[in-house]
Amino acid sequence: MAANLATTAHKSFVRIDRLTKRFGDVAAVDNVSLDIEQGEIFALLGSSGCGKSTLLRMLAGFETPSEGNISLEGESVIGMPPHQRPMNMMFQSYALFPHLTVWENIAFGLKRDGMPRAQIAARVEEMLNMVQLKRYAKRKPHQLSGGQQQRVALARCLAKQPKLLLLDEPLGALDRKLREQTQFELVSIIKSVGVTCVLVTHDQEEAMTMADRIAVMSEGRFIQVGKPHEIYETPNSRFVADFIGKVNLFDGVLAIDEPDHCAIDTPEGRFYVAHGITGTIGMDVSVALRPEKIGLQTEAPTDTSSNAFRGTVVDSGYYGSFSVYRVELAGGRKIQVAITHAERHVELYRRGDALWVTCSAQSLVVLIS
Amino acid sequence: MSTATTLIDKMVDRWGRRLVIGTPYLYLILVFSIPFFVVLKLSVSTSNDGIRFEDLTTFNDWVFNLTASFQKYRFLLQDDLYLNTYGSSLKFATINTLICLFIGYPFAYFMARSPVSMRPVLLMLVSLPFWTSYLLRVYAWRGLLDDSGTVNSLLIWLGAIDEPIKMMHTAFSMTVGMVYTYLPFMILPLYANLVKMDGRLIEAANDLGAGPMRAFWLVTVPLSKNGIIAGSMLVFIPSVGEYVIPELLGGPETLMIGRVLWDEFFANNDWAMASAVAVTMVILILFPLALFNKYQTAAVGRGTA
Ligand SMILES: Nc1ncnc2c1ncn2[C@@H]1O[C@H](COP(=O)(O)OP(=O)(O)O)[C@@H](O)[C@H]1O
Ligand SMILES: [Mg+2]
User: Domain of B180: which CATH number?
Assistant: First the structure.
C-alpha cells in the first residue's frame, strides 16, 4: 500500500479521460473528464436520465465506453471485465442475493477470491460488527428492514477491501427520516475505512452532506465540479444555481465592471455585486440571489452599501425553523425570501405588508452562462 | 340498520371468500378424490369374473363387516413383471425429465434474455405444436424414424449409411417422442421464472468477483430452483403414466406401466388388478412429491427457497 502511494503520489487515483458512452445515437455520457483523489468521496449529482448511472457502470465495467479512458492508479481498466476490477458497487436497490443469508452474502466475494475459510469467517465477522448486524447473520435479506439491507450491501462491498467503492443512489430506497441518519453513518464508515468512493444521487442535500466534491451533471456532461460550498455559493451557471437549492434569478445587462465590483441593471433596479466579471459593458448577464441571503425590514434602510428594493408581501409559508415569504417587487416580479426563526416564531409580516427587501453586495453572484 | 348491512356484508364477504377458495377444492374432490377412491375400492374388492364385485362392506344382524382383500397387491409385489415395469417407467420418465431440463433450460434462458419485443414471438413458437393434435404429432415421428422414413432415406441418399438404422420401436424413438412432446412443459415454467430474474443480481455476482459461469451456477441456477421443480414435475408426472407414446413409438424393451394397466383392464379383464396397479403408481409418484412439496413449502416459510 505504501509503495503504491509513493508511485502514484503525483498521479490522480482515478482518472476519467474524455469518456463518452453512446446508446444508439444518444450520448448518455458525453466527453467527460475527471480526476478523483485517493480517499475522496465524490458525488455525481443530476436529475434522472442525465447519465450518472451510466458513468458509474462504466467505472464498474458493466458498460463499455464508446470513447475515452478510465484509469485506476495510473493503469487503464478498459477491457478488464467487472469481476477482475478492484472496485465494488452497491446497487440501487442493493441486489442482495435472496437465496443466501446475510453471512453468505458478505462472504460471497471473499470466497471468489479463494480466501481460506478461517480468514473469511474473521473478515465477515469484522464486517458484521462494523455495520452492527451481528445478530442478523443467519437471516435472509427479505427478513431485514430497508436500512439493514442497505448495511448488508455496504458490508458486502467493503468486505473485499476495494480500491474504489461505487454507490448508486445509496439512500434512494430509504424513507426520509432514516435517510438523514444513514447519510452520516455511511460517511463515517467510508471515512473510517478510508476507501475512495464515487456515489450517484439525484438528491442535492445528500450530495452536499456526504461528498467532498460534487460534479453537477446534465445531459451526459459535467456542468460544474467543485466542493459543496463552491457549487452552492458560486454556481457557474444558471443551471447549477437553479438546480442546487432555491434561487432568485434576475436577468439584466452589465453596467459597471471593475476588478472588485460590478453593477447590473435589471428591470427591478440596479444590483451592486462585490466581484468583477471581466465582461463587456452592456452584455446580458443574470444575478443570482439565494432566498436566505435576503433581509426584510419595514423602515427604509439607512445603510447605503446594501442593495434595497421596495416590495409587498404576497404570501408566506411556515416551515418551523424558518418561513418563506413571497414578495412582489416594484416591477411585478415575485421573489422568495427565507427568514430563519432565531426566536420562537411570531408572524413577522402579513400579506399586503409593504416593506424593504435588502441584500448585501457579497450575497450576489453574477452568472454569464 | 347499518349494523345489519355490515353483518350481511361480512357474511357475503366470508362466504364469497369460501366460495372462491372452495372451488378448486371442489373440482379436485370431483375429478380426483372420488375417482381415486373408486379405484382404491376396486383394488381391494373380490370378484369372480373380474368385473362384477362383491360388496366391500356388509351389515348383517347388527354386525358391520368389512372385507378387503389385499391379494392383488401381494401378487403385484411377487410378480417381477410389475416391479420391472414400474422401474422402467420411472427410468424413462427420469431420462425424459433430465433431457427436457438440459434442452429446456438454455432454451428458456435465452428466451428470457432476448429483447422484449421478440419474446411474444418466441413464446408462440414454443406453444405452436399445441395447435396440432398430440396424437398426430407423435404419429408423425414414425414417418421420420422408420426404416424407410425421412431420416434413414436422407442418410442413405447422402451416402452416410448403406443399411437403414433401426430407430423405430426402440428406446431411442420413444425417448425422442417423449422429449419432443414434453419439452414445452419444461420450457414454459422455466421461462416464467427466468424472465422475472433481476439482472442486477448477476451483475452483483460479477462485481464481487464471479465470472459469467460462476455467476450462472451460484446465482441464476439456485434462483430458478422453483422453475426447475415446476417444469420437472410437469414433465415427470405425466411421463410415468404415459401410454400413447410408448405404444406408438416404443418397442419391446420400453414396456411402461400405462401399457400394463391397459392390458389388465382390456385384455385380462381384471379390474381389481388394474386398479391395484393404478393405485400403486399414484402412491409411487404422489408420496415423494407430496413430501417434497411439504419440505419446499416449509423452506419457503423459513426463507431458504
Ligand atoms: N442500456 C441502455 N440502452 C439504451 N439507453 C440507455 C441504456 N442505459 C441508459 N440509457 C439511457 O441513457 C441515459 C442515461 O441513463 P442513466 O445513466 O441511467 O441516467 P441516471 O442514472 O442519471 O438516471 C438515459 O436517457 C437512458 O435512457
Ligand atoms: Mg440511475
Answer: 1.10.3720.10
